[in-house]
Amino acid sequence: MNTDPDDGWSLVVPLKPLARAKSRLAAAAGARSRPRLALAFAQDTVAAALECARVCDVVVVTDDQVAAVALSALGARIVPDSPAAGLNAALAHGARTVRGGRAGARVAALNADLPALRPAELGRVLQLAGEFPRAFLADATGIGTTFLSAGPGVELAPAFGGASRRRHLSSGAVEIRLAGVDSVRRDVDTGEDLAAALGLGVGPRTAAHFDRAAG
Known about the structure:
The protein is α/β, with parallel strands linked by helices and about 220 residues long. The chain has a single domain, classed as Spore Coat Polysaccharide Biosynthesis Protein SpsA, Chain A (Alpha-Beta Complex). It is built from 9 helices and 7 strands; from the N terminus they run E-H-H-E-H-E-H-E-H-E-E-H-E-H-H-H. Helix 2 runs parallel beside helix 3. The longest helix is centred in the N-terminal third of the chain and has 18 residues, at about 35-50. It is globular. It starts with 8 loop residues before the first strand and ends with a helix.
């Protein structure tokens, strides 16, 4: 993590209450295990982001108290989802919170379900994103978005959800096209996504979930 706030990125990570998170994974992970798996995803995502040399802090927007305690313990700053108006409102709120304390902050939104995230790959994405006022990275399907950035003085203007790649393009954000950053693109919504993430190699908390299941 970069400890110089003038030379690093603030990442905003949204996380809905665990009881409602990752509902499409119930068939693959089991209904009872799904909330724990969603938390493991978020923990591995936040831990990897904090290890990235270009990141100075991670703000998690959530009202889930279990997740807040676990992610705060990793070093994340927890911000309540006071708008309570969905994903994009939570991201905009997180960005405003960051800039309330650091007006010139470079801010990026990052999905909470990137359990295979590699700090070095995130660093490459952030390096290229810094060349544009706003930039985004499409997910592995090329339909959605896992990352959206805004430079100093530029509004984040998130449009996540569904076919967000098209919406972010239409909003004027530049699409980041980099090879070798699969871990930043591999969000997990379905059993097939989960298998792909496991193939890349997931973080320790997600891996431990499956180690326990196997045992």
